[in-house]
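FIELD: query
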Amino acid sequence: MRNPNGYGSVVKLSGNRRRPFRVRKTVGWNAKGHPIYLTLDYTVTREEGMILLAEFNKEPWDVDKANMTLEALFELWWKKKAPKLGKSNRGSLKSAYGHCKSLAKLKYAKIKAYHMQDTIDNCGHGYSTQWSIKALWGHLDKFALELDVSTRNYSSLLQAAPIPETSKTPFSDEEVQTLWKIQEMEWADSVLYMIYSGFRISELLNLRTNEVNLKEGTVKGGIKTKAGKDRIVPIHSKVQHIVKRRVREGNEYLFSHNGKRCSQYTYRKFWAAIMESTGMEHTPHDTRHTFRSRLDSAGANKKCIDLMMGHKSKDVGERVYTHKTIDELKAAIELATD
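FIELD: result
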């Protein structure tokens, strides 16, 4: 069925694309009489595109282009575009906006590259936050172009602190002992748990309490890769009391903050406080390297290591967690000791 005049359309683009359907609206005509399209979004299916088009026509993104401020653009972008991003990514970008609020009332069309660069240079944080701010400006610039609020792409000129090379320095035995001494400090138990489990920071914060099997002594988690998703990791005997205490708190997420899922942004604040109080200089990823290094040094089975860390390996076929496999993983993980 043909859409009514002025309603808009959903067209399939050529090639192999993740979101092949372009949702568009005619906003004018060029000198040759050809339509000028505003791209609303790209979708996986035609049905999704038609739903988006219906939502747009029900509540058009009617904007005062000349007077749209950064604040107004961000709010519209957050409503229309941000929901399609991952939860962690949304959290980082929302935090990044907090460093741009000094420009909130400024008309977006008046914001120049040096304004954007100042929000990066004066944020007072390292490369991670700086790159999040840079990424946010990229999203907003693209959205502003779609809405014809701006004709410039200043975000492409922005610079952020270089990402440091990963040192992958494992925690020493002495440092681990120091962590045990301060385990009652807020979130110190999470550092110990990562050292004895190999979970990434993102995986730690997404561990759900209902995936903890205290009877079997295992935790199911992992989100980053196909090989790492929903893997089973035994609970090391040294951190069993940590897991049990967290389970007893009764929260949805095992390592929760105020009863809710803790964002990476908030967690890194806790991490920085722990590192400062102990005089250590480590990244959260160093816990994962520590776990691997200890297992390697102890001669643990490589297949077991790859299964627990979620690494793809030629020695690991289908991940069928039989009782025998779990027993092998338990034996291997206990080798990661001080």
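FIELD: remark
DSSP finds 13 helices and eight strands in the chain.
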